[in-house]
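FORM 7B: Structural annotation worksheet

SECTION A. Query
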Amino acid sequence: MKLIYQHMLSFLLIIITSVSIIGFTEIDYVRNQAYEQNFGRMESYGNAIGKLAATEGSGKKETLDTTFLNQLQFILSAEHVHLRIFNTKNKQIYPQTTTTFKLPNNVYDSLKKGQEIRIRNNNQESTYMGQTKYAYTGVLMPWFSKQKLIGIIWIGSTVRNVERPITMAKKNLINSLIITLVVGLILSLILAYYSTSKIKRLSRATEKVAAGDFDVQIEHKDHDEIDQLAANFNRMVRKLKKSNEEVKAQEERRDQFMADAAHEMRTPLTTINGILEGLQYDAIPEESKPKSIALMRRETKRLIRLVNENLDYEKICNNQIMLIKTNFDACKVLHDLQTQLEQNAKKANDQLILDVPAKLPIYADHDRFTQIMVNLIQNAIQFTHDGKITIKGRRLLHACELQVTDNGIGMSPEQTKYIFERFFKADPSRARLGTGESGLGLSIVSSLIKQHGGKISVKSNPQEGSTFTVIIYDKGYEQFVAKEND
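SECTION B. Predicted structure
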């Protein structure tokens, strides 16, 4: 069953149930009121006639005059009221019948004690008046004069006369139920359509998202839970779109990496294969063999470096390395790196400048800190020609700050956004041999710094250079950040 019909059925059931409960409660109330009023009226008639009987009983008569009772019955019959009178010997004396009619002894005993008995329907109850052509409701009342029983009267009216307002109430209930059913059907249709239309919009939007359209947004007014669901859906789609874009960018970078890696590996493998074939067929002169073997070793190291960088990155990202953090002087490490990388800088006609204090205490893993700085400096050399590369260091409160600044090709804001992600190359066309050629160097740097509980940031403008800032905190002040769950 469709949701709109379920909603309509629910609304109708609620409306019909509510109207039925109210209607039947009202009918029951009207019925009780009708009978109570009838009993009260019968009792007033009975009391009035009883007073006449008591007046006559003060003389020698103990019953009312038959002629008077006939006249009274004629008058009361217009209101469908009938009466019976019993004497003190439990014998019906009015109206007179051919057969003697008496009340049951237990009923007579109760009446002698002054109890009044109400009969709601003599044809349905086990009552004392017997079955009649028309159902009657009335009261049995004892008459007393000077605390002495002088007679008993049964006075009642037809049930159909008493239940006439009840019948009218039932007709009104049926009419109200029909009108309510029609109005409820229309209202439930409107309400169900209003509710299900929102759900249909969500369903259509979900189908579009499933088909790959992440630009879907649902308008809502925050009126109810469905609007709240729409707002959550919009947030989910925005996150999915962002994740999808990042996945696509990651895929593109991975594809580029695979192409670059294949290209980088093809050259050394071709070189090594050519030298080996030359050695096998003695095509290489004896005096050229040492040079050829040295070239083969360099190309082999280059291949090993490409593989090691990938393995290193995987270990770092999966927390498979253990940092052995100690306090040491970073100045000594930086001076050693300046000496080691000076030759690489000269090849690009770059000037390597070191701007650090006499001592620069730092709390880090010595080897991994060296790896971080080598990657940052090599990255600066790689993208700077005929320029300057400045390495600065200083102490902050409970931390050590290091900066590597160059005036090379720089990066755009879009490149800066992805610079620390795996496989990303800011300028693949200008990548040269050396550390960072695989697009993993800065990813490794970022992962290592995070494991140190530190921070890394970059500021860059195209053709103006870049500045990488690293902050490594002292022991007890590390700032470990959990990965975000997108």
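SECTION C. Observations
The chain has a mean pLDDT of 82. The chain is about 55% helix and 15% strand.

SECTION D. Sign-off
Analyst initials: ____
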